[in-house]
Amino acid sequence: MASTSLFLPTTAGAAAAATARRYPFFSHRSHSHVPSTRLRRAPRLVAVSAATSPASSSLDALIFDCDGVILESENLHRQAYNDAFAHFGVRCPPASADPLCWDEAFYDELQNRIGGGKPKMRWYFGENGWPSSKIFETPPSTDSDKEKLVDIIQDWKTERYKEIIKSGTVEPRPGVLQLMDEVKGAGIKLAVCSAATKSSVIMCLENLIGLERFNGLDCFLAVQPGRKSKKKTPEPEVHSQEQHHSSCSPSSASHLQGDDVKLKKPDPTIYITAAEKLGVESKNCLVVEDSVIGLLAAKGAGMSCVITYTPSTASQDFTDAIATYPDLSNVRLEDLKLLLRKTLVTG
């Protein structure tokens, strides 16, 4: 199979330079040289006395990201893309003997730089040449044909990803279900805010955390995808804009309805909207994320954030997180309450 290598743009044009200035954390880092200070477990906290912990410093809502937090999804998405490329005979460059195959190292860099499946493909095909395929025997040349190609591949990939999740071979990351149950049992509000496609997130949550927990969420926000207009397609940008689907209701049906939020993480809108719908102050929310993109979104919304990193995000700079964990297996609700209380009291 044709393979890819790490050759993401570093100096290509003003747009890339602007992106680098806005998101300096996207510089390449080797996973074999992860600074130990970034992989530390949070130190055991000293309890804060009631005299220094007013009600305004309480934890009122815990908000989970989905991909990377509730499940390690990077390799699953990569597998689904490669299956789609093989299914449609996608050859990029067109003269390649074998279908396109994104290797693990390349995809780690790609998914940490460019948000959304369609922007990933638009950027890759733009850099390496639009491919030949069973969809278009010769590479598409018009904007409408390029969009059709991307749409068809993405739709098939999404269905393939759902099949992988439904296969029963995928499990939640350690400690997730226990922490969710603790939160609900304590009467604290629980939410999931994801930048992934709405239908994929719903399917993941129903299969991984179960219908009862999913229906019990106090708030759920995810991407509400839409087809591109027939206007000229802009060049894909890092973390391109998409819509988010939102719902704050205990019923499954109402999870499929709601308002839209226009900007993806690292824009903070998704978390600001969650706080509004939950009826709590941002400072009394705690977000669980796995990447700097999510961390920036949480901080931009005025929320504290803990990180549970994955192999593909472990080398990122999590200085602004109030705690960093390899997973949630040893994290309890009381730990998080004390963490937030200490953070708010000390400022």
Automatic annotation (TrEMBL):
Residues 228-261 are annotated as: Disordered. Residues 232-245 have a biased composition (Basic and acidic residues). It comes from the Eukaryota. InterPro entries: CbbY-like, HAD-like_sf, HAD-SF_hydro_IA, HAD_sf, PGP-like_dom2. Pfam families: Hydrolase. Residues 246-256 have a biased composition (Low complexity). SUPFAM superfamilies: HAD-like (SSF56784). This is Haloacid dehalogenase-like hydrolase domain-containing protein. It comes from Urochloa decumbens.
